[in-house]
Amino acid sequence: MGSPPRSRRSRRWRWISLFGATALAVTAGGALACPAGAAGTNVDFATHCIPPAIAGLPPIDGTTTANISVDNTTPKVGDTVTVTYTVVTPAANNPTALALPADIMTPTGKVTLGGAQTGDVTVTGPQKNDPVPGYGVFPSFSMTGTFTVTSPGAITLSPSDYNIHTSYILELDTPCTVTNPPAPVSQTVTATSTTPVNSRAISLDKASGNPGDSVTVSGKNFTPGATVTLAGRSGDTQTADTATATAGSDGSFSAPITVNDKTTTGIVAYEGSAWSADTGAGPAAYVVNDTTPIPDGSQKLTTTVKAGTLSMSQAGDSVALSAVDFGQGGASTGNLQTVTVKDFRGGPAGWSLTGKVTDFTGPGAKIDAGKLSWTPSCATKSGSPSTCAAGSAGTVGSSGATLASTPDATLAGGEFTVDAGLSLDVPAFTPPGSYSGVLTLTLT
To answer: Mean pLDDT over all residues of the chain?
Structure first.
């Protein structure tokens, strides 16, 4: 069989060299392990890819297999979610005899949101690929981006269009679009509303009085114009001593309540028809004096138990997390410096210890605060009236989470030690260097 005419050979070589340089579309030789995080379901969808015009090739219609993974499947409104779009099997192989070198392809794409939140998430990948032999399959590739949760509910994520940009001889693009959008759902996250912080507070003009005395209650940060109920408390039970006040335009009020019940240990203020820790404040400690007459020939003996404070101390102010490797990333772990909480107030109120963290900043880059999670634990010292409960394991983030708490009770207090295992999920290609963030603990 003779050789083809020279003109045909030259056209064929020009086609191979130009088209081979474009790295048209990619196909994996096998399944790709999804990046760290919650992996979604592999989905197939019809794809229409357009080779660069200079290649002189017709469009390629094929099937793409893709997977969407996220770093947090249960975010709160306001949280930032990191999305990784992995093209496991693109729509076409390398159709040329020309081998392609490593690290010439830079992918970009979009992920489509649906359900409780709609829109597109732009994702990008590094310029990194293994060498591809002529007519060989292309490696799988991943692209990463983020979005901020704006609505509570189920948010679906579907793979969308992607583009392969190549930097070899020429700068060329091969866009691949979803033939029948949207593509199937690969991942779902369930977002919840951010829990409002209750900043209501009250104070009393005196800490004790005789039965029938009036005490003035001053409040702040209530809902402007709201009707506020003032009530006596005997431990965790409301007494018959009540009064009402109206919060001003700035959310403050000052009003009297007459206290008759000798068992009263505190006074609360709340909005609505019944006490709620979410819409109330207190209890503020209050003691009703015992004015019972002393019988003849008797002596009344008294002593005083002084109420203390609610305080915390830390075993240290810095934590060195374990190092991770560039290109691999993963969990950078450590342990929170032990926190000791002392509740010597002697009243019915429990306490809550919460924490929030800033972004971790480093050499020209940052690791999002939402990448830090903890596993809390709490121990109660023997003899303490209250029992400490550890917060839930999960993301700390910039919006914060509960580390530990004790409930309101008839008599609350005690001494407690709080610890937590820490884990920072470092993205694989975070630039090398030292990164630091500040974890702030608040005791209320």
So the answer is: 84
Phi, psi of 349 (to 5 degrees): -85, 135
Query: Does 239 lie in the same domain as 144?
Result: no
Residue 195: what pLDDT?
A: 63
pLDDT, tens digit (0-9, with 9 covering 90-100), for 245-284: 999 999 999 999 999 998 888 899 999 988 888 889 988 8
Q: Which of 290, 329, 289, 334 is nearest to 316 (CA)?
A: 334
- Helix (H), strand (E), coil (C) string for 352-367: EEEEEECCEECCCCEE
d(C-alpha 252, C-alpha 246), whole Å: 8
Pair 375, 414 in one domain: yes
pLDDT band of 109, cuts 50, 70, 90? very high
Question: CA 372 to CA 221: how far, in whole Å?
Answer: 31
Last residue of a domain, one of 157, 191, 225: 191
With H, G, I as helix, E, B as strand and everything else as coil, classify residue 300.
coil
Domain count, the chain: 3
Predicted pLDDT at 338: 96
- 6 found inside a domain: no
Q: How many helices (H) and strands (E) does the chain have?
A: 1, 30
The pLDDT score that the predictor gives to residue 65 is: 92
Give the whole-angstrom CA distance, residue 54 versus residue 161: 22
Domain that residue 104 falls in:
14-191
Return d(Cα 307, Cα 101) in angstroms, integer. 75
How many Cα atoms within 13 Å fall on the side-chain side of residue 74?
5
Q: What is the pLDDT of residue 77?
A: 87
Does the bond joining 283 to the residue before it have cis omega, within 30 degrees of 0? Answer: yes
Determine how β-strand 287-288 pairs with β-strand 208-209. Answer: parallel
- What is the pTM assigned to this prediction? 0.45
Q: What is the pLDDT of residues 141-154, one digit of tens each?
A: 899 999 999 888 89
Residue 179 lies in a domain: yes
Name the E strands within 31-152: 43-49, 60-70, 80-89, 105-115, 119-124, 141-148
Residues 186 and 263 in one domain: no
Edge-to-edge strands, sheet with 401-406: 389-390, 401-406, 351-357, 439-443
Q: Alpha-carbon distance 68 to 84, whole Å?
A: 6
Q: Are residues 106 and 218 in the same domain?
A: no
